[in-house]
Amino acid sequence: MNAHSPASLDPRLTPARPDLAAAHLQGIVAADRYVEGTTYAVVRPAVPVRKEPDPTSPLTTEALFGETVTVYEIDIEGWAWGQLDADGYVGWLPAEAIDLPGAAATHKVRALRTPVFPGPSIKLPPMELLSCGSRMAIAGTRERFAITEAGGFVFADHLAPLDSNEDDFVAVAARFLGAAYLWGGRSSLGLDCSGLVQVSLAACGIASPRDTDMQEAALGNPVAFSGDIAELQRGDLVYWPGHVGIVENADTLLHATAHFMSVVREPLKDALARIEALGTPVRSVKRL
């Protein structure tokens, strides 16, 4: 088999550079050297993942607390280069935001966000504020709190067992209404259109790629759409070039949009007309 140049594969999903690649890609891509990765866990509430090891480089995605990443290099400037285990996204993270994993996660945050307290009292100053989808190991309970393996206290009703799933990803997406739009974001403090879809589907146990083009290719079945909103159903994903929205019902669309710089519930007819007027008509509709 002839090895490919790393540039010939999708760099977002391929842990390969001309100088370094994952060991499992040896013989598939050409690189100066190949290394086995090491699994790390994210230990900050939301960690930026960037295309380049530079704090001014655009955000490409985020890793949430408790998610894991396979790291192939940590450079002398304190940047870790690796691949997120959940969706395969490749990029650079600040090394101080990851650590070798401790106990395996048992629960995930189901609320929009939840504080982690140093003791069993809501009057204590929280140590962290974790977003929906964050993961943690729970070691016990005390009154209304779950106690994390690290000794933090989290309101138990804000958590769900890791293996449990919600049944309505549209309702999950609606919890983010009013959250800021953030290119590359995946947390309740800011997220983009495909991040909203990915996080909402994950709460229901449905794995989703990160970016809109990946989602459009991988998720659901195509639905013929002539422009008549009567053809759409709750939960349909409407894709434009570079954008995606979630049909909430016959009248409304949920989406994170730079137009409003927020996650909004927009009249469906208005959204379709407004976006088409910008020269980007609907490209596809996918139904899960």
Q: For the CA atoms, what is the radius of gyration?
A: 20 Å
User: Whole-number average pLDDT?
Assistant: 96
Count of individual helical segments: 4
Biggest sheet architecture? 6 strands, antiparallel
Helix content: 10-25%
Structure summary, number of beta strands: 25
Which spans of ≥5 residues are poorly predicted at pLDDT below 50?
A: none
Straight-line distance between termini? 37 Å
Characterize the structure shown.
The protein is mainly beta. The chain is 12% helix and 34% strand. It is built from 4 helices and 25 strands. Strands 20-25-21-22-23-24 form a 6-stranded antiparallel beta sheet. Strands 8-7-6-3-9 form a 5-stranded antiparallel beta sheet, with no helix packed on it. A hairpin with a 4-residue loop joins strand 23 and strand 24 (262-267). The radius of gyration is 20 Å and the shape is globular. The relative contact order is 0.11.
